[in-house]
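Troubleshooting: if your tokenizer reports a length mismatch, compare your output against this known-good record of 413 residues.
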Amino acid sequence: MSHSATGQSTSQRSPHASSPPQAERSTLRGWLAVAGLALGVFSFVTTETLPIGLLPAIADGTSVSVGTAGFLVTGFASVAAVTAAPLTALTGWMDRKWLLVTLMVFYIGGNLLAAAASAYPLLLAARITVALAHGVFWSIAAAIAVRLVPERHAVRATSVVLGGISLASVAGTPLGTAIGQSTSWHVAFVCVGLLGVLVLAAALLFMPALPARGSGNLAVLLHVLRHRTLLVAIGVTALVMSGHFLAFTYVTPYLEQVTGVRSSLIGVLLLVFGVAGLVGNFAAGAVVGRALRGSLIGSSGLLAVVLAVMWAGGANTPLAVTMLVCWGVLYAALPVALQTWVLRVVPEESEAASSWYVAAFNGAIGVGSLIGGLLTDASGPRPTLLAAAGFVLAAMVLTVVCGRGGPERVSRP
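Known-good structure output:
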């Protein structure tokens, strides 16, 4: 991988340039820290989606409607989207190790506050506390990971960290829902809070000091937007993620009403989707470093085809299930490719650039889910697949037409 992929020269990696035994220890410690970041991604994604399976119980426990309780999810994503960029810029002066420690303290405190809450306003305040940390964590996680390992392993480290997304789908959200349903939603929040303790311990034990590269002011946010290729990457992210969540938010009614899958099998199919995502995530780690643009074009183009096939042939159960597995593989490869693209475009301000990526990602969750909901209410869940295919196809076209170009450097503000 080129130097521009991480913006860090070999001479800056003094731990790895020392004697071989020390280098081996330092590399092992770096990978353990990367594993801690992956657990952090797993924890944050699990926390973000935890209320989905527990909405009726939370609504009853806090004396609000299910719709009002649902704002604990949509409001969480909205807060993370709006605050990710400014908070990441304002904390640009902090050593990244100690910023991560601070974020995990907020994460643990917010989840334990949620576990103790019996009134909706307090529970909402707890969720907002975690959402504030969520946006910053996502903005810095991949940028930290590539500083912890040798440059040639930067994409692999990114895929390991983002593997926490698929793992949360496979294990985190289902287990959290099962715990909440078998005990109470309070206990579920305690459990995800304890996950944060493990991430905090990994940061303290394994992560070296990582001096800040930012200036700690908001001007850097406008500065990085002067990079045309970054704007393209943000646009592609918004289109891809809007398309995915437009359809996936309503995949359960699609499978039940269009494909005719029994309700009892939905959980199994979503588990299969998550496992396929793990495969796609790590396959991307092996390919993206060598062919980034090709990976983006291929993954988004094939995903558009898969979604279109599901729209056209959804009544054929074997076909629909096969396409669902392909969807899981292809979608999971895209965050690895997109995050790597963002890190390469502006290596000198990778975290500020990532914060715009995070804002686009989280904003797309809300936009996609809203459009999908309107389509489902108007015409049923089937049209969401065709609309999603259109969004993803537009992302592919944008990548083909405007996605060329390597790192761009302009004068600092």
